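TL;DR need C-alpha cells for one chain.
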Amino acid sequence: MGLLPGYYWMARPSNTFDSLSLTIAITPQIKQYLEDMTLKGTFGSSPAEAARMLLSNGIDAMLNTGALDRRKWTLKDGQLVLLTPDQPSLSS
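>> reply
TL;DR here they are.
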C-alpha cells in the first residue's frame, strides 16, 4: 500500500510566479519516505520536491472537497495578489 493510495502526479509545470521558501521539521522516517518517493520518478527529484507535491496535492484535495475555502487571486502590476482576503476582522 502506498503512502497515499490513488494519488498520481505528473511533472511539475514551470512556475510563472515567484516562489517562497518554507522550512519545516520532519522525522527521519518521513524523510526516508520522501526519498523513497523520488526513486519512483513521479514524485520529483528530491525529498523537498516530493514534499512540495504532497502539500500541493493535499491543498487541492481540500479545495475540491470544500474542506478549505478557495481564495481568489489576480495579477496587479505583475504581482499575484489576493483579491478577496476572507480574513476575520481584528476589531470586535
